[in-house]
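Q: Is it fine to ask for two folds in a single conversation?
A: Yes, each is treated on its own. Send the first.
Q: Here.
A: Result:
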Amino acid sequence: MKKIHTSQNRFLLFLAIIYSFSTISYSQNCPSLPGGHYIGSFGSSSQEYLFPGTVPSGSPSGSQGGKTIGHLYFEGKNITYANRRLITIRPTLDGSSYGKVLLQLFKLRFNSGTYLKIYRGSNESGTLVDEITSSNYASKVGDEYIIDGAATLVFYGQTPNVADNNIIRFLTGDILIQTCNEGRSGLVWKDFISANSYVLVDDQEGPLNPDGSTSYPNFLPACMAYFDENKNFVRVETAFCIDQLKDAPTPGYWEYPGEYQFSIHSTTNYDIDRDGFNASKDNLKIARILWLISQAEGKTFEIKGDIQWGIWDTQYYSVTTNFSSSSWAAKAKSAVPTIPSPVEPTFSMNFPSDETGEDVVNTGTIQVDIPFSWSSVQTGQTKVVKLIIPAGIAVQSVTGGTLSGSNLTITAAVATLTLSSSVIGEFTIKAVYDDPFYCNVSNLKVYKPCNASPQSQEFLHVGEENLARPFRSILVKWVQNPLPVRLMSFDASLENKNAVLQWNSAEEVNFSHYIIEKSTDAEKWSSISMVSSNSTGNYQFVDSNISSMTTFYYRLKMVDHDDTYSYSRIQNISFDQKGLKLILHPNPASDFIFLKDADGQTLASDKVAALSIMNTQGAEVYKLTSPVSSDGINVTNLTSGMYVIKITLTDGTLSTHKLVVGR
């Protein structure tokens, strides 16, 4: 257990490592910031001054800016006391307010008569924090020093001329967290991160063993931290690299926290091995990798590192490769020899047409629909999902299914939950197909980097937002006060490869405006436009920035004049490898519906192999018996309500859609 030296109580803290490589670009650009890295060695200058960003005016001559993080290497040194070297780290971005300095003693080997002194302050007149000598250096390896304000290191003496035997890592920042790695800490500047962002905050670089070797030489997996909409730290989780052939430099060499930022993206048809999507091959590799990640929970650095190698081998080599029997890749191949067909049930979580997903705490209820079906019947399939519901939220009733504990057995085409809450807030409800033979290959969530050069690789984790089993999730919200406006409808559709949002409302008394929010995972949102209230209650917005991702989610933030607000239900549009997915238009419908393709054009009749419509009890109420007419599908004989329409295309693609009939 390593010792921690701190100037006050432990706070949450973090450091960043990013792994660089070339890959495709994503639409989110990395921020332009004044930070940077430092590599030094107690060189020729008697005293160096380092600042994390721009050097403030009035700083000592020769001060260096952009030294947010760094490494000190000092092998082969022979410095007398009279010529001792000082390095002062001043953690300030503006010259007036100060953050902290974190020093981590990774590797130390001193000859006799050697001293390393650590002071709080800008010179040797400051408070002595610790003195590391030839007689005690071995016991100091792995220690951390958390210092408020400036820190000064003073060095003199001799070190062996052996590469990488004396390494100190430093970080600066004003947010302190504990990383994933056995109590190790890190730092970040709040001004250097964005709202709702993920940052890699630590690796697995280990300290020096008594024999001179590192306790663990593999730097991966990494540790990812999430910061909320107010840039407050929320959590950390272990993240595994899924680009085996890409570079992974030691942390502190190049990137600093905030220089690269990640966001979680939902994926479909994910090309895990980067050679073009092949369903049988890529889905099997994903299933094996998810199994490997699930085995890493609670394991040591060494085992996690071995599992990382197993992930790389699984990703890079053929699914039929005969690995060494003791390797983690071989264990994954044995544990997941094949995957079922179909790979998971067809299911989703969404709101009924008249549900916003938001209501008043204690008195209001929210309904959630779970359409569920299997595209083909295979042995062992069930219609049971496990519900993950946060504390304070209760299931008041269920239609189309029965609930026993957390297990929901679905008995109709759509099961509907009616939820209430005794607590205020926004919550995620999950439905998990919790069968060990099925893996989450169709709803995989991947950390994708912002767009910079060089690009960082993608990462994968299993945790709060990404489960190993097939799952779906939805956000619900309970508020203290009544909602400022009531939506009559809100729909998203694709026209000429643009997202077209349309909605209409009622009761806009004292109402101000709508904020349109967009997301890639239906959990982390960004504002893209504002639409003022009008007298008609009818609105439309076109989003043309959708060309580079697979799925986008939209919601409306409805703001009253007193700044109270509520959210609409979530709508989404999706891309797949063949273009845009099918959409129904109009929806809700009163007489005819049309199937639209990627360009918003009516789908040719020869593209549809089968089509059926079921009511909420699972009974088939319509079945296609002839080619789809250019006049559309006649639903005038259906009573008002919700239905599920199943469509099979001639290329074998199966999709299930919610259809609302209203008159």
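Q: Second one now.
A: Result:
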Amino acid sequence: AKEGIVFATGDGEKDDTNQLYYPWGLSIDQHDYLYVADHSSHRIQRFPLKKD
């Protein structure tokens, strides 16, 4: 998860991209990014599924 970026956050806390607190939903887009909705951290994280 070190390659992930915080896409959206709403809790005012520090953006630790290497931790998920309570992942709730997953989605993959047409560009091969995985999106993880992290319920308890109030954010969505994006992770590349392919290396450039």
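Q: Anything structural to flag on that second result?
A: Two points. The chain has one domain: 5-48. The chain is about 0% helix and 45% strand.
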